[in-house]
Design goal:
Blueprint (H helix, E strand, L loop, with lengths): L10 H44 L1 H9 L4 H43 L9 H22 L1 H5 L2 H5 L4
Helix pairs in contact: 1-3, 1-4, 3-4
């Protein structure tokens, strides 16, 4: 009576089926990664824009004491890169923890199997470096206002 309703599979068959499902779902995962990266870069842009507006007088004073525009740009790029670095370290750490929980806790409980953890450090490092560079570039673009204004107007008090 249950022959048509119930299917019994060996763990190896279930594992193969689950891995095929994982492979298909990675297309969606990569799309979500792209969206997350864009949202993160928008966050960097918003943060750096707000910071440069709040620091307009500081940049004006720096210009008055002889700091060149390119040095302010370098400072903004460094700040953006550091922001990207901190975000990258946090993301890699939290992602690694989540992966270990999924592989060594969820999979054994749900599917009765696990797999060895293999981290593609070259890919992780390449993506992290690209994101740090993108964060630095985004910070520079967001901070254009800091170097575009006249130094005298930047330090003027608004009454």
């Amino acid at each position: 009576a249950l022959a048509g309703l119930v299917s019994i599979a060996r763990p190896a068959t279930l594992r193969r089926y689950a891995l095929e499902l994982f492979d298909r779902s990675f297309a969606v995962t990569y799309l979500l990664e792209g969206v997350a990266i864009l949202v993160g870069l928008a966050g960097v842009a918003a943060t750096m824009s707000a910071q440069t507006i709040a620091r307009t007088r500081e940049f004006g004073m720096l210009r008055h004491i002889g700091v060149a525009k390119r040095q302010i740009v370098a400072m903004l790029a460094t700040e953006g890169a550091l922001l990207g670095l901190v975000g990258g370290i946090a993301g890699i750490t939290l992602g690694g923890v989540m992966a270990q929980v999924l592989v060594h806790v969820i999979n054994p409980q749900s599917f009765n199997w696990t797999m060895a953890t293999r981290i593609p450090w070259g890919s992780v490092g390449g993506v992290a470096l690209a994101l740090i560079v993108a964060a630095a570039g985004t910070a520079v673009l967001a901070g254009r206002r800091a170097i575009a204004a006249d130094a005298v107007r930047m330090v003027r008090e608004d009454w």
